[in-house]
Every structure is written in structure tokens, then in C-alpha cells.
């Protein structure tokens, strides 16, 4: 599924620390589908003010070819108001709000820009349907590190568990987002030295229904785009299915056969969605 704001697919959303000007500048040339300039977890308290100025300068300078969001500091922190004011006045594409736990907070902070609510606490998971229902919320982002800590889960080897302790919460976020036509984005993968583990987690996230993945390193962008995108072969198969479907509909049939399988309206809708994602992905620069 593509971005409900109409800016294209969101297969990868890259976090960039706001206190790293060189990383911010480098992000302009990367092929992430969106960039999140981070003022929260990635920035130490003593660097918050300078990070905010760095992000302000980067936004006002323009020249971004993808949506640029700002992850502001959370409610109740000393920096929340200054962060939000800066992001709104500097032209951020949207706000990423950490640790959202109730719909009222999301509603109050829907300030005319898309709001991406981070679900990273048990209460946030339980209230995810109400949060996703808020009109200003564009999507839900999983914060698995904080969520795992809050749930007191035990570390698991990814190839054995596939995040078994978090599966209920991950699926709950996907269900809440999809029920309200919003995008669910999977959590970051911490070990940038483990490309196989990252690829495996992307595959799992796609299978669970996530639209894309948040990433923390440039090397994770291309694998995420591939995992949550559509291949040329898949696009061709979708075209072939639609040809058969449309020919059958022209003859008045509501069910057709393609490749030995029955094809109904839902399969045609899925094929159209795949083609939309494929076409949107073709507009992105080559890796």
C-alpha cells in the first residue's frame, strides 16, 4: 500500500540523528522512501537545542525529494513544544510522536500535518485501534525496543524465534492500522552488521502485513525497499491476472480461472494494488 498522503510508497523510513549534520546532508542522496530527522532517542539532552537548529536549517534549505518527518520529543518533556513549533514552521512533511498511548493526545497534536504515532508501550498497543482512528494520524510505527523492555520479554535469536514474544503486539498494530486505512511501519533492526537477520525480519514484517520498515543505517534501505516492494515478475503476473479478470467480467462472469486457480474481485483488487506499488517504485531513483 502506498502513502495515504499520496507521496508514494513507504517501504523504508530512515531515522537520522538531528545532532549529526553530515548524516542529515548525506540522507538527501539516499534512496529511502522517507526520512525521519530524529530529535528524541538518538540525541542526548545536552545536544537537543543544537539538534533542533540543525533540523530547522535542513528543512528550510529544502531540496528534499522524499517526505521529511521530524521525530519530536515526547509529551511532558522539556523540549516538546519547541520541537513541534520548529517542525511545523519549518515545513516538515509530518510529525513522529513517540510513546503514544491514547487517542486524545493524537487528536490534540493533529495540527494540520500528518502525525505518525509510535506504538512502543503495552498501553499503546491496547489503544492502537483508537489511535489509528484519529483522522490526523497517517500511520503507526512500532517501537519494538521500548515495547520489549516494557513487556519484560527475553532476548531471542532472530533465526529461531522471529520475534515470538512480540508477535501479538506486532499483529495488533497492523490490525489497528489496516482497519482504519492507515499504514503500519515495522520496527528498526538494531544490528547493522547482520544483513541476513535484517532480511529475515523484513520478510517476517511483510508477511505480518506491514507496509514498510523503519531503518537506522543506509545499508538497510535497499533490502527494505526490495522486501516491501514489488518485483518485475510480480508486476507481470498481476498484469496477466487482470487481463484474464477483465476479459471474464466483459463476458459477465464474476469468477474466472487463471493459472489453475479461481480469481475473484478481491484478487483483482490485490493485483491492482501491486501494480500501483510497482509503478510508484519505478519513480524512485535507482539504487
TrEMBL record:
Entry annotated with the keyword Ion transport: no
InterPro entries per the UniProt record, alphabetical: Aldolase/citrate-lyase_domain, Citrate_lyase_beta/mcl1/mcl2, Pyrv/PenolPyrv_kinase-like_dom, Pyrv_kinase-like_dom_sf
Gene Ontology terms, MF aspect: lyase activity
Domain of life: Bacteria
SUPFAM superfamilies recorded: Phosphoenolpyruvate/pyruvate domain
Domain HpcH/HpaI aldolase/citrate lyase residues, every copy: 11-218
Gene3D superfamilies for this protein: Phosphoenolpyruvate-binding domains
Cofactors: Mg(2+)
Alphabetic keyword roster: Lyase, Magnesium, Metal-binding
Name of the protein described by the UniProt record: CoA ester lyase
